[in-house]
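User: Sequence for Lipoprotein below. Tokens please.
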Amino acid sequence: MRERTNAGGPWRARSRILAAGAVTGLLTMAGISGCVFLPDVTGTPDVSPEGQISFACALASHVSEERGDVAEWGSFIGEDANPGVSELAAAASLVGAVAGYTLPDHPELSESGTLVIQGIVRVDEAAIADGLDQMISACDGADTGGQADVSQEGQGAYACALAEYVIAEHGESSTWGTLGEEPAWHLAGSVGALFGGANAYVLPEYESQAESGNNLVSGVGRLDGETIDAELAAVVAECDS
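Assistant: Structure tokens for Lipoprotein:
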């Protein structure tokens, strides 16, 4: 297990959010189809493309049902931030928003995710709430039903499994396609966001992955493949330790 430094304060976190938000401007958004995938109920995280959408939809529903009115969330950045911020950022990232990727069969989900990320970057409560509502609407028909484990422990377990998936299925970042066309970019960002990296939140019980979470989100924003490769490997090592 490698030594960890402090994940950074609010201003450092804000710079990372802005870096991630900058790439969302690359999105081209269209489409009207709905989310129709069922969540995994076996206890093993489903990190397939279908499972990623199901988890994102379940996480968005969790935020809507459990985190209350966005206007009452309070702090958005740092360890004291409302958990709904990082959870919603992770849901948005899983549908491509953190790296300018549009889901081929579900572009409306990517569009709603972009609204969420832009709202978080601006700390715009109304935009975040609108993006969440649109994401819930786009997910209509997906029977999440609370079956996916979107508890904080479940989020960490999903991030661990997703990191392994990215390495196994997509290899080193030097082999990835371009931003907006290659899903590995937003999946790497999603690993970071699930650990709180989009807003310097620290996911309980996964404190040792906090720095990697921050670095993955900022690495995607900078297209820094060396950092992404190193931090994905670090996440897997920490999760296995």
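Residues 1-42 have pLDDT under 50 and may be disordered.
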